[in-house]
Specification:
Helix content: 25-40%
Strand order of the largest sheet: 1-7-6-5-4-2-3
CATH class of the largest domain: Alpha Beta
CATH superfamily of the largest domain: Type I PLP-dependent aspartate aminotransferase-like (Major domain)
CATH architecture of the largest domain: 3-Layer(aba) Sandwich
Shape: globular
Number of helices: 12
Number of strands: 12
Structural class: alpha/beta
Largest sheet: 7 strands, mixed
Radius of gyration: 21 Å
CATH topology of the largest domain: Aspartate Aminotransferase, domain 2
Order of helices and strands: HHHEHEHEEHEEEHHHEHEHEEEH
Number of domains: 2
Distance between the termini: 49 Å
């Protein structure tokens, strides 16, 4: 069955019944026999679909988790109240006191902040590695346990060669944890490229309507057991109402991402020709760092692009003149956004030359408006 069809049918109850699985709210799950209660407690350690206690999800959350597992080609998915919670849990499940973790330098700022703030207090060593790393040998120590990656990179969208990096990781027995929010399981599937865990902020494209906070970590193989243990031990969960809203949003995931991707590439090409622009960051552009790898491993782009303007450009006045692009954090909803970003403040390794990094930078998200209207809005903001 094709992916587009699966999106429509994920979690479909038996008929006659509603098109979407109903919201089931529960804390206590009742049994009529003690043997049933004991059996459920045993089987839930390997079967995440069992109704056992509200903290472990009801059938609403189970339907969403199953859908994400299929979308990501994984074996088990665990749900969280935010993307940051999902990433922090995935990392923590494989990083104990005395361990060493490698982190790509271009990772999302909140992930970086978590590692920098929590690893020292938990006696976990860590090092940042370049985005184009394929051989981990120079950084691996005998106590290295995991590698944290994000591709495309946060804010600048450099594309990693994940198959090559994962091959190197396996030779050293390392677990690879990928932030896959950009691809969200539709454009990109890190587990099929060799990663062990794929983390997605469902706040973004999975839900798609700018009204939901949630995260998911999808694991395969041996990575499922330690992640499951950490999730249940720390009480991470997602409400059934949020699970329902996310699954409903996923019905149109393919249609929405196709529109987002077409619009963002149109904006990227148009902005590349503007005299005010020094550089456009978009993995769909030829010449972008890792463009060929993205074309090989992915099936399209999302609505994000970043623009480095020339030094001296009056950025705030430009942003204030925009009408269709609102100023706001996050992305992945139906709305278009523009937000000043400062990637050089969240990197340890030099990414750009001083000349390239001297101008102000904005991350745009192309929403579901017509691309020509978005271009007109930008043109008006430029004043020509």
């Amino acid at each position: 069955m094709r992916r587009e069809t699966k999106l429509v049918h994920y979690g479909r109850p038996t008929m006659p019944g509603p098109a979407n699985p109903p919201v089931i709210r529960a804390s206590t799950i009742l049994h009529d026999k003690i043997a049933s209660f004991r059996d459920t407690k045993i089987r839930r350690e390997t079967d995440d679909s069992l109704l056992s206690y509200g903290r472990r999800g009801t059938t609403t959350a189970h339907a969403l988790a199953d859908a994400i597992s299929d979308l990501e080609a994984g074996d088990a998915t665990f749900l969280f109240p935010s993307g940051v919670a999902a990433m922090a849990s995935a990392i923590s499940a494989f990083a104990a006191a005395g361990d060493h973790v490698l982190i790509v330098d271009t990772v999302f700022g909140a992930t970086r902040a978590f590692c920098e703030e929590q690893f020292d207090r938990n006696q976990v060593e860590f090092d940042f590695i370049p985005w184009n790393t394929v051989d981990l040998s120079p950084w691996v120590k005998p106590w290295t346990r995991a590698v944290v990656v994000e591709s495309p990179a946060s804010q600048t969208f450099e594309v990693m060669d994940l198959p090559a990096l994962c091959k190197s990781a396996k030779t050293h027995g390392l677990t690879v944890i990928a932030d896959n929010t950009y691809g969200s399981g539709w454009l990109y599937r890190p587990l099929e490229l060799g990663c062990d865990i794929s983390v997605v902020s469902g706040t973004k494209y999975l839900s798609g309507h700018a009204d939901l906070m949630m995260g998911a970590a999808c694991a395969r193989g041996d990575a499922c057991t330690p992640l499951r243990s950490f999730v249940h031990g720390t009480g991470q969960t997602l409400s059934p109402d949020d699970a329902y809203a996310c699954l409903r949003g996923m019905r149109t995931l393919g249609l929405r991402l196709a529109h987002h991707g077409q619009s963002s590439l149109a904006l990227a090409n148009w902005l590349s020709a503007r005299p005010e622009v020094a550089r456009v960051f978009h993995p769909g552009l030829e010449g972008h760092a890792g463009h060929e790898i993205w074309a090989r491993d992915a099936v399209g782009c999302n609505g994000l692009l970043s623009v480095r303007f020339n030094a001296g450009f009056h950025l705030e006045s430009f942003l204030d003149r925009l009408k269709l692009f609102s100023i706001g954090a996050s992305w992945g909803g139906f709305e278009s956004l523009a937000l000043p970003v400062y990637p050089d403040q969240h990197r340890s390794l030099e990414a750009e030359s001083e000349d390239e990094a001297s101008g102000p930078m904005v991350r745009f998200h192309a929403g579901l408006e017509h691309a020509e209207d978005l271009v007109d809005d930008l043109q008006n903001a430029f004043g020509s």
